[in-house]
Design goal:
By secondary structure, the chain is mainly β. It is 0% helix and 40% strand. A hairpin with a 5-residue loop joins strand 6 (124-134) and strand 7.
């Protein structure tokens, strides 16, 4: 008998001796785990149209980063207090590399955990995500990969908002150029209207 195939588990309670070689498994032999998280640190976000600078305080068309006291509040991206500010859009930008375990062409999404601090806007507040594949020669490749439209974040209950990517051209190690935009409209709310992003992550299909 050249090959013995055992369809179930084998429990060896004594000594196992292999007189021939043992062939290892390749990554393609492994079971696929779908939508595994890859955290994108908020402190890596940069001013979207002045990429040499990290985000600071929210102003003009830029998101900012802040945090409560250590042990009380955690870091978050914010559009600042936009009460009675009318229609305002603020953005930030970062890059992310797909992990080596990523299965080429399989699912990729960007998950944004977002909501409103203190008070919802009296009009609307949405978050939008754009992502381009980095070509490797200082340019982008193709068009915006995100297929999900802007989503409402106008609630004081924070929630995970999923933005799906067209992944047919994506491989392990590929780099994404990502821009996140918060658009808020508030006319006359008296208390603070502060859109906030508590977390951003990739969610990808992996083997290994």
């Amino acid at each position: 008998m050249d090959t013995l195939t055992l369809p179930n588990d084998v429990d060896v309670r004594g000594t196992f001796r292999a007189r021939g070689g043992i062939i290892g498994m390749t990554r393609t032999d492994l079971e696929q785990d779908d939508f595994q998280p890859v955290h994108l640190p908020l402190e890596n976000f940069r001013i979207w149209d002045a990429y040499g600078s990290l985000v600071g305080s929210a102003a003009a068309d830029d998101l900012g980063i802040t945090a409560g006291a250590f042990g009380t509040g955690c870091p978050y991206l914010t559009a600042g207090d936009l009460k009675a500010a009318g229609a305002t859009t603020r953005r930030a930008r970062t890059t992310a590399r797909l992990p080596l375990e990523y299965v080429s062409g399989q699912s990729v999404r960007i998950v944004v955990t977002a909501g409103m601090l203190t008070t919802a806007a009296d009009g609307s507040c949405t978050v939008d995500v754009e992502a381009y594949l980095v070509a490797g020669d200082t340019t982008k490749s193709g068009s915006d990969l995100v297929t999900t439209a802007a989503q409402s974040m106008n609630s004081t209950a924070f929630s995970d908002l999923n933005f799906e990517l067209s992944a047919s051209t994506l491989d392990a190690g590929a780099v994404l150029d990502i821009r996140i935009s918060i658009s808020c409209t508030d006319a006359a709310t008296a208390t603070a209207v502060t859109p906030a992003i508590a977390d951003v992550m990739l969610s990808v299909d992996v083997k290994g």
